[in-house]
Write a structure and sequence with these properties.
Two copies of one chain form a homodimer. With about 150 residues, chain A is an alpha+beta fold. Chain A folds into two domains: about 80 residues, Arc Repressor Mutant, subunit A (Orthogonal Bundle), CATH 1.10.10; about 50 residues, no CATH class. Helix content of chain A is about 40%, strand content about 20%. The structure holds a DNA duplex (30 and 30 nucleotides). Chains A, B: It holds the Pfam family HxlR.
DNA sequence: GGGGCGGGTTGCGTGAAGGAACCCGAGTTG
DNA sequence: CAACTCGGGTTCCTTCACGCAACCCGCCCC
């Protein structure tokens, strides 16, 4: 992302993408949701350059999407944990992953599944209406400017 | 996005991001969801460079997320329309937009809202369990490798 | 024949991504 | 006590995608 600003967009999609739309960022967050927390862990899962990982983690900490906490002294070492703001990306990450499952199919089927802990059903992402309480189809949504 | 391949990730989030994770791509799709369909329309809404828009649209057409259809001859002119695959990104786009609404607040509140056509309630994105049928919290989800 | 419109392509400069090498403090092995 | 390893980075260099401006082309209108 060159300038990583999408000025004048008047849309929070653009503001979100300024923060988490850089290359690798969402994959780092996915790895963190799956339990990775240490620098070397991300390196092992992601095949990302160390300097790039370093700058992404710094940016995520700065944005309070992750926090850097020491897990030992002598020598002091840090790990990276998602904050509630970061964990709030779960829906978006699963939505993108399942879009890939549906529309970029592979032989063998999708490699990962989102399970409901305790009940073991499969979790999927739905649009819901806050007023009538029903599930909503893609075509029934109108995203409109309100300001 | 430099190489725009995230090889060996074994995760459809990575495969999705290869297709729609480039800078501007998701904003183009959002504009298309909002009704924009012509080259100049995207230029006007997005403040994107013409060559970049051109290459993004070409890639989206190649991936069958959009289609390029003539809307007049003499001279022949084309517009770009979302395919069902593209419209299936609605959930993901709204999820990211509403993450911004919740976590990157601005004075004045969010600039756009997703309304349920006909009922006029506000649409939001939820995780739902396919087995027990209930809404699921972020912490109740376990994304696990199944292959 | 000059201008405008829609829809692009070409060429150039720059800054972010990729890769490899290096660094540092502390523990561990021989 | 030197050499090595491990976690967690930083520095440096190269390359390639982005941003910008200029140009192009077919067709219409005046």
């Amino acid at each position: 992302m060159l300038k990583h600003t999408y000025e004048g967009q008047d849309c929070n999609l653009a503001r979100s993408l300024e923060v988490i739309g850089e290359r690798w960022t969402l994959l780092i967050i996915r790895s963190a949701l799956l339990g990775t927390s240490r620098f070397d862990g991300f390196l092992a899962h992601l095949d990302i350059a160390r300097n790039v990982l370093s700058s992404r983690l710094a940016r995520l900490v700065e944005q309070e999407i992750m926090e850097r906490v020491p897990y030992q002294d002598k020598p002091v070492r840090y790990e990276y944990r998602l904050t509630p703001v970061g964990r709030d990306l779960t829906r978006a990450v699963i939505a993108l992953m399942q879009w890939g499952d549906r529309n970029l199919p592979q032989e063998l089927g999708p490699p990962r599944r989102a399970d409901h802990i305790g009940c073991d059903g499969v979790v999927h992402v739905e649009l819901h209406c806050g007023s009538c309480g029903r599930a909503v189809h893609d075509e029934e949504v109108d995203v409109r400017r309100i300001r």
